User: What shape does this take?
Amino acid sequence: MNPFSSGTRLRDMIRAIRACKTAAEERAVVRKECAAIRSAISENDQDYRHRNIAKLMFIHMLGYPTHFGQMECLKLIAASGFPEKRIGYLGLMLLLDERQEVLMLVTNSLKQDLNLSNQYIVGLALCALGNICSAEMARDLAPEVERSLLTRDPNIKKKAALCSIRIIRKVPDLAENFLSPAASLLKEKHHGVLIAGVQLCTDLCKVSADASNYLRKNCTEGLVRLLRDVSNSPYAPEYDIAGITDPFLHIRLLRLMRMLGQGDSDTSEYINDILAQVASKTESNKNAGNAILYECVETIMGIEATSGLRVLAINILGRFLSNRDNNIRYVALNMLMKAVAVDSQAVQRHRTTILECVKDSDASIRKRALELVFLLVNDTNVKPLTKELIDYLEVSDQDFKGDLTAKICLIVEKFSQEKKWYIDQMFKVLSLGGNFVKDDVWHALIVAISNAPDLQGYSVRSLYKAFQTSSEQVCLVRVTVWCIGEYGEMLVNNVGVLEVEEPMTVTESDAVDVLEACLTRYSSDIATRSMSLIALLKLSSRFPPTSERIKDIITVHKGSVALELQQRAIEFNSIIQRHQNIKSSLVERMPVLDESAYIGKRTSSSQANIVADKSSQPSSTATTLKFPNGVAKPPAAPLVDLLDLSADDTPVPSSTSNDFLHDLLGIGLTNSPSSGTAPSGGTDILMDLLSIGTPVQNDTAPKVVSSNQGFAPTTKPAPTTSQVMDLLDGLPSNGSLPGSQTPVYPSITAFESSTLRIMFSFTKQPEKPHVTEIHVTFVNLSSDAYTDFVFQAAVPKFVQLHLDPASSNQLAASGNGTITQTLTVTNSQHGQKALAMRVRMVYKVNNQDKSEQGQINNFPPGL
Assistant: This one.
């Protein structure tokens, strides 16, 4: 016989395919066999139709296309004999799925077969329907399936129950039709029917709340009795697994109880006793027993269980953590993470075991345990938990250091109540895992140090010691460089020594050695080397004996191939050589950064709820917002919020870096301002040396004069070209030096745009130097008259402002008239902080509302 004729037996074809040595040979055999089957189909060969479909199913399982045989399956299903129907339904389930339009043709055949008296054919139809049933077929055949649930044959009942699960998943609206039959299945003695009925009830609860209520009312008592019988039943070899009687039925019953008890206190109370019995009697030395215990714990945590039962469940999870099987420990950690929200105190008792899991050799368990530890941290246990995690950081794998470092930093920042403890822990993290610390973390540490004057000396000394042993940690090096540049004299002079510190002697040369080592050791790290150059420039003013050595170090980098370093070196060298008289004022310590503002901006990106809570509070509320490290920020005044003066609540402009600390450091900031955005103020040319890439003022924007100029204020910005040329190639400087003019209070142009000019003049009473009277003059530069003119102003919190009524609210066009108004400002920090003001002008032009606003920073010194 031809091996590839339609009469070839299935085993012969399989043998021929398996004998192929290459994929090409296999494809040739399959191609010839498919051609023979096509010929038989075209000839309508009925004798070998079932054999051809069997071959097509095997070819389909090998991955070859067999769509041409789908209609043959339908013909076999329509046949009267059981063997043909068996192959037909099997081919239907393998070769087709619910998305095939051909499937619509088989609905009538299924309906006829479901109504037959032959239990085997009915079983075939139910099995096929349960595998490929579509929504349309479910609606058409649901009555027949429901009728099958009421038959006396247990095999038909079991298959009908499984088919019903598919139907209610496809069409949840049909769930109510199966409630009564499903409830009756729970009383069956046949094991297969019972377990299928339990699963059907579980799916009914998932798709319908009414089904849950019905089963809760009619089946809870029977389920409890059933679970008790299964739990206490003697040894049954057919359902026994490793000495555990019928674990699959155990688990299905527990899941159904969880669905019924969820959110219902009466049902939960009724099933508490049986859950306690299962949890206490089930053996945990077998995997099947552990599966039952895990499902029991999940049920207890999912219902309204008593506190004692929850503690029992959490203790079972604690035993799981001591198991040798990694899978059991992993699922226990997952469940404990859910249990923390329900009963945190009970989970805390297993803290030691959870910490041991952090040190596990399995990466998945380590990460899950670390997440659980983070959830367990509170104000009472933060210090011992942090100590354990930092101790493990020293010996942990490199792959795990990143996750571990991030979690430790989050814990320390979130729960620290003392500045010294916060600084100490962050120094330890930087020493052990500084290469894995993110930039915003060490930026926040610098902000915290700058806001703790009594700990600045301690901090710089601690960093100096840590640098000697952990100089390979980049973030530690950066914080050390910054602190030495800011507080180097505290390091050398041992300022602010705490009782816990050991005495140490550091010379000025030793401090310079650290910065020089950073410049040479981190040749590829532009940011660290840039910070080192800034720190050296500052030390050249504070350590005069080392000035020449610092100059030589900076000069070496004038030829650097890195443009950032080359520019800094050239400019810093020029400052040291030609501007000794202003260098000391130029390299003063950075102003203290507002810690609450920094923390608020940093957390707003990751915790949107802080912003939502903040905006939802009324402006008159006296509530204080709390931040980590004991920092508190009072709410801003309503007018300040209205005019958007408070920098604490305003978003960072798009023209600046996301991190204003990084901006102050001036490393790699080359972003240009957005078009149409007016800069908040100009910057002195010499100050630009410390902040490369400062935005250039746009001529089309309103002219708001800066307050950071080192010269006497004038009504126009000073030319900058000659000063830049002086710094870079030695041309003569035209700028006057500080102190070259006597302190006077000249009139200034506070604000000027294309349509409006505002002039300020000042008077002071000698006996009240902190009080200034400002006379404001408004001039209309446009060709249209302004009506309903209103002037508003806002000042920082340390300044009090009083506005007298304006002379008029009508401002004539083209400068033909003026409005005058008097302001009285009281500077509570006179001599320490300069005045600053945000102004807003509202008026109407041809009955259309107009407004302008700007920042005034060019107040004369001494106000």
